[in-house]
């Protein structure tokens, strides 16, 4: 079944996560994505110190792959030929490298003025740090304010997980490129679309950045000094963690809303004494006496198993969530019911489960179109489609223009 991007041709000159992940989503949606790698391959193929890097499989399915020496004029010409009838060019190479390789916007647009050119940088294409290198750990996690806001006072700043900002960026890239393609359908104009990891991080921590912009004190959370015991974690009788996200968050909430919440919450706890306790009758009072309330709640949550709390919290329409490990997520019934995962038969690996893209097109669903390609697997196929003869292709292999 054709996807929503069926017929779209994408040339990816990218590496690691942000651009490859975005291109993979486009491939899942039916686009013909050609991944152009150096002769040595995308460095993330062997990030785990072996030929098997699970993250590479996640970010590179639903593509064809070719290996081209872009430092060679003949290699550069190949990419230009590909771009002549391409719809999208995607890259996250550094700007200096793109200029040297002739893969910058002006060079690609000269070949195809209607192309949509997407570029991801660490810090943007202007400003004093435009040429600085940066993965998402530094640009998106640390500099944006996320790491600062998650640091518990007196503790070391927490590290990020691999590729978090990159994968969020990949969804922004997908949306931005789709919007540019839609605009081209209406106007006939291609354009350059810029993304950067720093800005993605700032967008992700936008509530706190907005507090800073309007002069509101920052709300750094110390687990030992809970600002709101209803947005906190609790340990259950069977030694599981539960994240409570109940709806009594702000002291300014209306009293009827707070009263309704408190009634349901104390019913779930089976604590009518708390329901009538004068210290906790309003949202404002519960905030005022949170230091007394939090230990009471901790003691209550330790009296029942997680499964028992699930029944009680659901029955009273209260928000909560289990704190799961990645291993737990693999078998979570809700994840399985919503088709979070798919399985491919990956050459050299065997049966391999992958995460599906988080966008669901109901009438034209996306799906993994093909397995993850080997380095240069489709080089000859793509060259032949561009009109190169078998002799020319063999000559380019011999001269190490392609692999």
Please give the domain count: 2
Order of the strands making up the biggest sheet? 3-2-1-4-5-6
- CATH level 4 superfamily of the largest domain: Crotonobetainyl-coa:carnitine coa-transferase, domain 1
**Gap between N and C termini, in Å?**
32 Å
Task: Write structural notes for this entry.
With 403 residues, this protein is of the alpha/beta class. It has two domains: 9-204 and 332-398, Rossmann fold (3-Layer(aba) Sandwich), CATH 3.40.50.10540; 241-322, formyl-coa transferase, domain 3. Helices cover 42% and strands 13% of the residues. It has 19 helices and eleven strands. The strands form three sheets. Strands 3-2-1-4-5-6 form a six-stranded parallel beta sheet, sandwiched between helices. Strands 7-8-9 form a three-stranded antiparallel beta sheet, with helices on one face. Strands 10-11 form a two-stranded antiparallel sheet. Helix 2 (54-59) links the parallel strand 2 (32-37) and strand 3 (64-67). The two termini are 32 Å apart. The relative contact order is 0.14. The model has no long low-confidence stretch (mean pLDDT 95).
What is this structure, in a nutshell?
It is built from 19 helices and eleven strands.
List keywords for this structure.
single chain; 403 residues; Rossmann fold; formyl-coa transferase, domain 3; six-stranded parallel sheet; three-stranded antiparallel sheet; elongated
